[in-house]
Amino acid sequence: MSQGLIPATILTGFLGSGKTTLLKRVLTEAHGQKIAVIENEFGEENIDSDILVTDTNEQIIQMSNGCVCCTIREDLRTTLSDLAAKRRKGELDFDRVVIETTGLADPGPVAQTFFMDDEIAESYLLDSILTLVDAKHADSQLDTRQEARRQIGFADQIFISKADLVDAPAVDALKHRIKHMNPRAPQHAVHFGEVPIANVLDLKGFNLNAKLEIDPDFLVEDSHGHDHHGHDHGHDHGHEHGHEGHDHGPGEACNHPHHHVHDDDVKSFAFKSDRAFQAAKLEDFLGSIVQVYGPKMLRYKGVLYMKGSDRKVVFQGVHQLMGSDLGPKWMPGEKKQSKMVFIGIDLPRDILLQGLEGCLV
Fold first, then answer.
1. 297, 306, 308, 307: which is closest to 341 by C-alpha?
2. Which run of H or E residues covers position 339?
3. Annotated Gene Ontology MF terms (predicted)?
4. For residue 274, what is the domain's CATH number?
């Protein structure tokens, strides 16, 4: 019998951001879901000091609430394939997998495991990458550690913990900063004692779905390629923070100082066009971009309007690995357009935007 694909969530975030608190909840609380938690490395905040029996040789431990905790002794691939095999034979019962990466790990290779390996791809579906950010220490961590910035770039969903320990303007400034690095990940301030676990886990953030959820204003960025400093801050000042009387046009300077303090190397930009793409040209261009810049490309995703196809094409990638799929048909009267977002480290925005422009019909 086919049990369908097992959804997997990758949980990443720095030391102290609350991953352990969240995992303990998953492993002990009566949430009614059977979850296999995979500890990917042993960091300082190792979960097993509190819950797990440390001197056991057994790699898989059944928890009292029906969850399974598994500490990785081999590589992730082996562990995932083991778990799936035990589930098929009925030796283990679980509905989903949560993989914790320790504080400074790069989630890229973990995410790639789900794409590169056929056996894994036939058993699992990567549901989403969650990044936990500690509101109190985030600014200094983001200033000093590229790994921290990368974790933001990879995220499908961002949870800001410990927001109650800092004042509201600081949380606000942090959200703005994160939004520039990654506009496609919704951000939520959370207290892990209170959030329903379902909100944390079942997010379908990574799935190739036919909508690209970016703040619509983010896509309004002008695409004329002039690089003045106002353009990619267009979506976050104005009424929502009560700055009155700042109706400056896109070319004028924006004087809200907190938008300009950080020039992070992880940045995002969007491409949008109402003209169709030529499939062969786009494939060649993206292929060559990924060859050259793949290591610096964290996440990219798009819903595309292709010449000659009556269906949307959805594509996304992590580093050099790119996948695409036919989406639903364009509805009668629906405006056909392509929307793409690229998140990466010092990516050559102009080369990418001009190149994409060159692939249009």
1. 297
2. strand 338-345
3. hydrolase activity; nucleotide binding
4. 3.30.1220.10
Instruction: Show the domain range for 326.
Output: 266-359
Q: What values do phi and psi take at 180, rounded to 5?
A: -70, -30
Tell whether the torsion through CA atoms of 1, 123, 40 and 132 is positive or negative: negative
Q: Which amino acid is at 144?
A: T
Same domain, 319 and 179: no
Rg of the chain taking only CA atoms, in angstroms = 21
Contact between 6 and 86 (Cβ < 8 Å)? no
Main-chain phi, psi angles of 72, to 5 degrees: -75, 120
What's the pTM? Answer: 0.76
- pLDDT, tens digit (0-9, with 9 covering 90-100), for 240-264: 333 333 344 444 444 444 444 578 8
The dihedral of CA 68, 69, 73, 74: what is its sign?
Answer: positive
For residues 48 and 52, what is the distance between their CA atoms, to the nearest angstrom? 4
Segment 10-56, tens digit of pLDDT: 988 877 777 777 888 888 877 778 889 888 754 444 455 445 544 44
DSSP H helical ranges for 162-278? 168-181, 197-201
Query: Dihedrals φ, ψ of 166, to 5°?
Result: -130, 165
- In degrees rounded to 5, what are phi and psi of residue 267? -135, 165
- Does 251 map to a domain? no
- What pLDDT, in 10s, does the model give residues 174-205? 999 999 899 888 888 877 666 667 666 655 55
Nearest 5°: CA angle at 108, between 147 and 160? 55
**Residues 129 and 154: beta-carbon distance below 8 Å:** yes
Q: Can you give the CATH number for the domain in which 175 is found?
A: 3.40.50.300
**Residue 313 and residue 304 in contact, taking contact as beta carbons nearer than 8 Å:** yes
Distance of alpha carbon 121 from alpha carbon 99, whole angstroms: 16
Alpha-carbon distances, residue 76 vs 6, 79, 81, 132 (angstroms): 15, 5, 8, 21
Give pLDDT < 70 ranges for the chain.
1-3, 41-58, 73, 102-104, 192-196, 198-261
164 within 8 A of 191, measured Cβ to Cβ: yes
Same domain, 24 and 161: yes
